[in-house]
Amino acid sequence: SLSVLVLVAGYVGLSVWAFQVHRLWLPLALPVVGALLMTHVCLVTWRVVCEQQERRRVHSIFSRVVSPDVVEELLVQQKLSLGGSLREMTVLFADIRGFTRFTDESQRRIQEEVRIQQLQGSRAEALLEENARETLTIVNQYLAVIADCVKHHRGTIDKYIGDCAMAFWGAPVKNDRHATAAVKAAIDAQRAIADLNVRRAQENESAERENATRKAAGLPLRRTHPVLTLGTGINTGLMTVGLMGSDQ
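RESULT FIELD:
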């Protein structure tokens, strides 16, 4: 912008000098307003719009991976550096109880179906893939409930460890009532999981009644969904918080 203003001032000065000294008339409106200023304004506007779109895209992508608070903290930094600070924080672990047993039993059941139906090749792979998708769908439903409760109480989702979610309060945004927020999030998560299980139990009852009819007709049976519970652990204390990893 400064270069454009200098160029405009230079051209205007040259035009005035040429007219006064040599009586040469140089056009001002079209080169200055139409060419220099309008081109510059359009370029700046285009860059701003594109940069804002890219910023929103990056924010949208990474907000699905880490907490939106962490994304905001990273985006405002001019330069990322490794290091940490000591803070009193509260951390929460939420583990889906019975999920490992469910996956083992589900895997055995699918392998038994493959053996009984004597499926091979792509048909066997398709059945195994379907079971894998169903397993991930179930665990994601439970993890989504936990994540929603954590976000509602302004917590930060740190990571997912299989069927376990880890969250903390007090960073990157300070929260003087971090322990209270964590306990409230845990209670809300337990209530939400209980409501989810009530709906699952009703769906299972409906599926079992329908399976009686489908079995008599020789049709494939509808699968029932497991009713899983949630275990939570909370601890408050001094913690080292910051970026860890490699400078590269």
